[in-house]
Amino acid sequence: MNDVQPTLDVAGVPSSAAAAADAQDFAVPAPLEAHGPARIIAMCNQKGGVGKTTTTINLGAALAEYGRRVLLVDFDPQGAASAGLGIPAHELDSTIYTALMDSSVDVRTIIQATSVPGLDLVPANIDLSAAELQLVNEVGREQALTRVLRPIMDDYDVVLVDCQPSLGLLTVNALTAAHGVIVPLETEFFALRGVALLLETIEKVRDRLNPRLRTDGILATMYDGRTLHSREVLQRVQETFGDDVFTTVIGRTIKFPDASVATEPITSYAPSHAGAVAYRRLARELVARGDVA
């Protein structure tokens, strides 16, 4: 097949796709008169390196910019979301692990404020890696995160849970607590292979543990419109999953790791960059779809 290079806009998206996206742009959401109860969204994909943490941080920051009260839950023992927001989780005595293991601990005592107004974080560190083994023999082991989050549901509009790249007990806990799931999916062929297994797991959790759970959408990430491969994968994802695919597409850019090193969301590190624009658009799309108040 002839790999013809399309005309690109500043986001690295083919101009035709950019025009279609502009035609479907979403209005800036109106301010909220009151806050809560929160809607919990799990950021989930068992494949690593697909943009889960990047999306959790930057979507959370974008929603906070629009006046939403947002809580991020770092639910990955690697603690990438904590590090990406400048929280030294490895130095903390109390993290999400503490609240999971001790029902007397109030999660409010663990929450850390971030540099972004309206955006808070429940941090995690390597201690969380022990939680799966310790929860195995607990009664109601799948509901541990649900119990932890229950006291703060009226304090926030949205809770974003950054899951680890696994379909183990921690991820099942996140899916059991969640109202919805966002699946970040790298526009690369091998990233497609695990989606069926993930959707099967979501369906099992819905059937057995959490009937309210639904798939909010699949988010195409790391898109490079200059390559035929990226364009073909995006097309296949859209053909396979239809309306379950967000119209917002997140392009590949060095600015995301740069922002992580600076321990800031891209929305504050480079507010006018195409990556920041894309995550604000995703926030507006979520509100327009009714996934976030």
From TrEMBL:
InterPro entries: AAA_dom, DNA_Partitioning_ATPase, P-loop_NTPase
One Pfam family in the UniProt entry: AAA_31
CDD domains: ParAB_family
Occurrences of domain AAA (ranges): 39-214
Known role: May play a role in septum formation.
Family under the similarity heading: Belongs to the ParA family.
Listed name of the protein: Chromosome partitioning protein ParA
Organism: Litorihabitans aurantiacus
Gene behind this protein: parA
